[in-house]
Design a protein that fits this description.
Strand order of the largest sheet: 5-6-7-8-9-10-11
Radius of gyration: 20 Å
Helix content: 25-40%
Largest sheet: 7 strands, parallel
Length: 370
C-alpha cells in the first residue's frame, strides 16, 4: 500500500512569556503568544510535527481552523512525501494563511526526514553552513536592565545585540543604544529594529543619524512595509545597511524589495513566507539580486525554531546573525529536547526529520481547545 496522509490535526496553544515584549510595532505589551501545533499522521503510523507561529497573539486559533476546515481535508489521502505538490494544493485551496501552510509543510518535511532516516537539512540538499549565528533582541525598557539582560548572552558568545527603537522625539532610543554599546564595547555588534516606527522618511533619517555614532551593524525596517520607495530613500541617506523585515511578508515580496533597491539585506521568516521551501525561494531571489539574508522570528516555540535552523543552514547567502532564539523567551518549551546552542550559534538537530518531539504535558497545559 502506498504511504498516505491519514489525518491532520491543529491544536491552538497559548504560551506565557518570561518577560513582556514591548516595541514600536503598535501592539500592547506581549505577555503571551498564541500558536498552533500541527500533527500529521500517516497510514504507517509516522507522525510529523509543525508549528503555526504568530507571535502577536492574533489569529492563532483562526489559522488552526483553516487547517482543520480547508488545508487538512485537501491533503488527507495524498502522499506526504509529495511536499511540493502539497504546497500547490494548499495554495489552490485557499489564499493567505501562510503560517498555517508553513506548519503543515513543516510536518511533511518532518515525515520525509523520518522516512529517509535523515535530518531535514539533508533532505533539502545538505548544509552550506554548520551553524547559524544568533542575536539577542532587547525590547523597550530601562537601559540598565537591558545591559543586565544581555550579559549572559555575551558570555555564551552571542556577537550581535538587537535593540528595539522607534520612539521619535525622545532620547529613549539613544539612551538604550548608548548603554548597550558601552557595555559590549567594540567586539560585539549592535543593530537596531524600528518595527516601522517612523512616519516619514525624513523623520527616519534624522532619528537614525542620531544613533549612527554608536556604530550600528544594521537598521531593521524603519518605515511601513509597503513604502518601498521611502525605504530606498532612507537607505540612500544613511550610512548603515538596511534590513527589510516586515516588507518580506510573503516570499515574492523579496523581488519587490530588490526591484526598488530598498534594502541591503532581507529578513526571512519560515512562517510568514509560507514554509521552508518558500523561505528558500525568498533567499534565492535575494541571492540573484546580490542581497544577503538573515532569519527573522515570530518568537517561535521549539518546533518552529528547529525548522528555522534546518532551513537557514541551507541558504548560501545567509549573513549577519539571525533571530533563531524565540523558544528561549518562554519558561518552558513545547518540545522535549534542548536545542544545541554553542559559541553564539544554534546547530540544527541531527536526528531524522526536524529532530524534535512533542512535550505532551506542556501541550495539555497550554492548549486552548479543551
Amino acid at each position: 500500500m502506498p504511504l498516505t496522509i491519514e489525518s491532520i490535526e491543529a491544536i491552538p496553544v497559548r504560551a506565557p512569556r518570561t518577560k513582556p515584549m514591548i516595541s514600536a510595532g503598535g501592539f500592547a505589551p506581549l505577555r503571551v503568544s498564541d500558536f498552533g501545533i500541527v500533527r500529521v499522521r500517516t497510514s504507517d503510523g509516522i507522525e510529523g510535527l509543525g508549528e503555526i507561529s504568530m507571535n502577536n497573539g492574533r489569529d492563532g486559533a483562526i489559522q488552526c481552523d483553516d487547517v482543520k476546515r480547508l488545508l487538512g481535508p485537501a491533503l488527507v489521502g495524498t502522499n506526504p512525501l509529495d511536499v511540493r505538490k502539497a504546497i500547490v494544493t494548499m495554495d489552490r485551496t485557499m489564499d493567505g494563511s501562510e503560517p498555517a501552510k508553513a506548519a503543515v509543510e513543516m510536518a511533511l518535511w518532518d515525515i520525509a526526514g523520518k522516512v529517509a532516516g535523515k535530518p531535514v537539512y539533508e533532505i533539502l540538499g545538505g548544509k552550506i553552513h554548520d551553524r547559524v549565528f544568533i542575536r539577542w533582541g532587547l525590547a523597550f525598557g530601562d537601559p540598565a536592565a537591558g545591559v543586565e539582560e544581555i550579559a549572559p548572552w555575551i558570555a555564551m558568545g552571542v556577537r550581535t545585540i538587537k535593540v528595539k527603537i522607534g520612539r521619535p522625539g525622545t532620547n529613549l532610543d539613544a539612551e538604550m543604544v548608548a548603554a548597550v554599546r558601552d557595555a559590549v564595547g567594540d567586539d560585539v555588534n549592535v543593530m537596531v529594529d524600528a518595527n516601522s516606527g517612523y512616519r516619514t522618511p525624513l523623520q527616519a533619517v534624522q532619528e537614525i543619524r542620531r544613533l549612527e555614532p554608536y556604530r550600528l551593524q544594521l537598521v531593521e525596517q524603519p518605515i511601513h512595509r509597503k513604502r518601498l520607495a521611502d525605504l530606498a530613500l532612507i537607505r540612500q541617506r544613511i550610512s548603515t545597511p538596511i534590513l527589510a523585515d516586515e516588507s518580506i511578508r510573503h516570499w515574492p515580496d523579496a523581488y519587490e524589495v530588490a526591484r526598488h533597491s530598498a534594502a541591503d539585506a532581507l529578513g526571512i521568516y519560515i512562517c510568514e513566507a509560507g514554509g521552508i521551501l518558500a523561505a528558500l525561494n525568498a533567499a534565492a531571489i535575494g541571492e540573484a539580486a546580490g542581497l544577503v539574508v538573515t532569519i527573522g522570528s515570530q518568537c517561535e516555540l521549539g518546533i518552529g525554531t528547529a525548522a528555522m535552523a534546518h532551513a537557514a543552514v541551507c541558504m548560501p547567502n545567509l549573513a549577519f546573525e539571525s533571530d533563531v532564539t524565540g523558544h528561549l523567551r518562554y519558561p518552558v518549551d513545547i518540545i522535549n529536547e534542548r536545542l544545541d546552542y554553542r559559541d553564539g550559534a544554534i546547530h540544527p538537530p541531527t536526528a531524522p526529520g526536524l529532530g524534535v518531539t512533542l512535550n505532551e504535558e506542556v501541550l495539555e497545559r497550554w492548549r486552548l481547545d479543551r
